[in-house]
Fold each of these.
Amino acid sequence: MEYRDELVHGLVYNGAASVIAVSGREAVEQMRRIHDCSPTVTAALGRLMMGAMVCASEIKNEKGDVSLIFNGGGPAGRAIAVAAPDGSMRATVVDPQADAPIRPDHKLNVAGVLGREGMLTVVRDEGRGEPYVGQVALQSGEVAEDLAYYFATSEQRPCVVFLGVIVDREAEILGAGALAVFLLPNCPEEVIVDIEHRIGLFAEYTHILAEGQTIDDVLAILFQDANLEITARQPIAYRCNCSRERMERALTTIGREELLKLLEEDGQAELNCEFCRAKQLFTGEDLARLADLAGAVKRADIELTEQEDA
Ligand SMILES: [Zn+2]
């Protein structure tokens, strides 16, 4: 069977706990190529993106999405991953080339590039206007523990979370994935004990994926004798939703004066999408038109305010 990135929802222990599993090697590889990431940043940003996909997969409204904003004070700077319930995801980081010395256990030093002093912010947009914003202090800077802490404290959902990206010496990605197990309300004590016994095995999730197993095979191994029932599955991919129209709107918000200054000083403007690096050139003519538009928006604002005052 040909490999494809995918996400699976399931129930275990006859519905006493739920599972979300992600296999996202191609998406992380695309992210690495777009941003030309160091191996350590590939692992760090890849984990954050897999985590965002787990969160987004629970949103019902297709217009919604989830952003994970990781501010740890490390050399890579602020990292952001966004995922949507349609299975699309994207990510960006201030310095993709940042690196940190390998850990004593020979693992990539994710906390070394992201930092461990700061906050994880989760912006969950359910697609109905005001997004829900949750924020927690970082626990380890290794991402999975930080996200589990967010679920437990901000959403009162006890869980275990494993996020992994396996990169070889040639910087090739062998496997990338996420496994989250949530205890549902009234989860029996014996189920909690059984899950605790399996934690060492759960930690191998991405390693087993990297051996070429399918997501179903890995889950069958991890949840042997735990009544695993797959309830939903969907393909996932790295995909940006930027467009020239979106960038025009962003450019208009800087205001008429700033646009005219840009026109006078540079004669044009080139905008880069921070998630896919797509470039859009706005000529002098474009800038003049947007300045007119920004002026019109402002005039409309003033007229509206005056009417309200009257
Ligand atoms: Zn883009």
Amino acid sequence: MAQGDLKLLGEWASPYVIRVRMVLEQKGLSYEYLEQDLYNKSELLLKHNPIHKKVPVLIHGDRTICESLVILQYIDENWPGTGPHVLPVDPYERAVARFWTAYIDDKLFPSILMATTKETKAEKTADILATLEQLEGAFKECSAGKEFFGGDSIGWVDVTLGCQLTWIRAAEKILGLKLLDEMKMPLLIEWEKHFLAADIVKHVLPSVERVEELARMLRASAN
Ligand SMILES: N[C@@H](CCC(=O)N[C@@H](CS)C(=O)NCC(=O)O)C(=O)O
């Protein structure tokens, strides 16, 4: 399908937005990025996502697509021949990838956000560590000895987890402890190196310092 007019409503620190930006980059699709103020939501955001009122929102011509994973799938299916597949082609591998992304979205970012922006909660930190340890095993299963969860190229699980890397590293600084630990998670540490070296990641992932500053601000206003 021809590219058409693409607009993305986003917020710079949102991992859900960052994963969509990575896949748009990976597919080589050009788009207009419209930064949103989530404390003062625009008419555009409320019009296009009246149900959740959240970013990301992808506007493709006269179509609106909401929810990051739904957007990723739309992009992958709409432009299948452009860049590598995001979701695996094989139905079983696809099911496994979907299982892990659901796990990541359910377990990881909510705990990171709580642990970094609210008062330190020991159980939240333990949740993050337990989740990352499970993902170490998932990497072994999905990557089959290659560089990414998606094998030779960045795929569905890579972007879902990778968009949270700066939040994980910022959380380590705020909490003063190691979450991604080279002793316990050597495979994830290697994966992180490969992931951060990719151009599609470098272009859109904010710096740890910038995320840390935001998290400390949110933390100060919450406590
Ligand atoms: N499940 C959604 C989550 C999106 C989300 O939580 N977005 C946040 C930014 S990180 C947002 O827009 N928050 C605004 C609000 O809750 O009012 C997705 O995957 O797109």
